[in-house]
Amino acid sequence: MSITVNKSANTTDVVYALSQENGSKKTFVVAASGLNAPERLEIEHNMRPVGAKGTDQHRFTFSKGDVDAVTGAFTLGSVEVILRIPRAAGFSDVVIRDLTKQAQCLLANSFVDGLKNGITIEGDYSQAGAFVPA
After folding, report:
1. Which residues lie below 8 Å from residue 112, measured CB to CB, with a gap of 6+?
2. Residues paired with residue 62 on neighbouring β-strands, in sequence order
3. Domain 1-88, CATH
């Protein structure tokens, strides 16, 4: 089993191959990423029994590691997405699609670039001095 996704420029496919499975959690890896820069995708589903009321939860965690060539220190960056889908009539497919599309729009490249540089919706944390509110 494998999962193919695109990188940010939509020009390169990344293929995650199933590495291990433990109950409701599956771990996928990019075989070409190697030990110095491992890329993983973890998927976990917590589903209510058929006919039960409540909320199903789906968790997707993408991570990429890196070993500093000078210091040998390992760092890990990750993005985690959690979908909580109530089993209620008011939460149609369209409502869930709208919520996921809104999250996709918020996490556009320019917004994420700003976060990496210390700029949030609330203001600019990138300055050495005082916080600059938005």
Report:
1. none
2. 41, 79
3. 2.40.160.220
Neighbouring-strand partners of residue 75: 66
End-to-end CA distance of the chain: 46
Q: Can you name the residues that pair with 14 across neighbouring β-strands? A: 5
Residue spans of the domains in the chain: they are: 1-88, 92-134
Q: What is the pLDDT of residues 63-112, one digit of tens each?
A: 999 988 899 899 999 999 999 999 887 888 899 899 999 888 888 777 78
Separation between Cα atoms, residue 101 and residue 103, nearest integer Å: 5
pLDDT digits (tens, 9 = 90+) for 1-39: 888 888 877 778 888 999 999 989 999 999 888 777 889
